[in-house]
Known about the structure:
Blueprint: E1 3-6, H1 15-28, E2 34-40, E3 54-59, H2 67-75, E4 86-87, E5 96-100, E6 115-119, E7 145-150, H3 153-162, E8 168-170, E9 187-192, H4 198-210, E10 218-221, H5 227-236, E11 237-242, H6 251-258, E12 262-265, E13 281-282, H7 288-304, H8 306-323, H9 326-340
Parallel strand pairs: 1-2, 1-5, 2-3, 5-6, 6-7, 7-8, 9-10, 9-11, 11-12, 12-13
Antiparallel strand pairs: 3-4
Amino acid sequence: MTIYYRCPDKDYPVGGIRVIYRHVDILDRNGFDAAVLHHYYPFRCTWFENETRVAHEVRYPDLSLPVRARRRTMRAVGRPPSNDPLPALELGADDVLVLPEVMPDVPESEADVPKVIFDQNAYLTLAPYPLDVDSQQLVYTRPEVLGAIVVSEDNRRYVETLFPELRVKRVHYGIDPELFAFTRDKKRQIAYMPRKNPRDVQQVVLRLRLTGGLGGWELAEISGRTERETAALLRESAVFLSFGHPEGFGLPAAEAMAAGCVVVGYHGYGGREFLTEDYGFPVAVGDVMAFADTVARVLEELEHDPDALARRVESASRFIKEHYSPEREERDLVAIWSELAPPE
Length: 344
């Protein structure tokens, strides 16, 4: 039996893809037989360091292809090469296919393959379906689905209330305590990610700039960076702006907390188990005026009374390290898969 985690062929930073690779590594070192399942050979993610086992659904003879076609296949962009594909993988009833919530399609050839849904953002659970979909057409209700794995208590409630007959398990993300190490000495720098809710990003950033709320602080955009580059930027930044909503968990905000950033912004529902008033500055989604005002107030406090914020930041970092450790993630995952599909 092999556990195949189906994964998009995207070679740019996506936190959920990094988690898929990490889970395969955890399973393989704990006696399971697991692999990331990409579509086109020889694709693998390169924006973070890995030696993860990777399999492919469709294999093209790479040396016989023109260079341009090979590059296109590697990036999984545009139309595939015209060469006849060579079958690379056939899943059987002895395997388990793990489907991301955003990739729920099941071809006829996989109809009888046991499945688990890895739902890293429950708010995308219904996104692939039309408004008139019948419940029996949802992948979650298929008879061969063994259960679903979620990444927060909020998302557990979402899936359990939607599919009360489904077995739902929660895994805690593990945040690398060395990569996202707590750092006291910070630059006058505010980190943010522009990809999610870009209109809110624009309004908050411009309000801060135009009203003088930045007070000489620098903005650092996290975009197109490797995992290590992102971690380094968070370690040196004093503040992180969280624009993710809705979120299955809110991994960037949690990583920023671990690294010692004051986190201001949206918890995205999935992150309300850690982005609380005890550990950060949650803002109601869409309230860009309150968001900008809160950032300005935090910057003012960092300038004139940093000790109070320092205590909150240290407490937040400890909370993240205690509740979202790599060891806990490994224990959770091994326990879940030992129940769903015990290793032979």
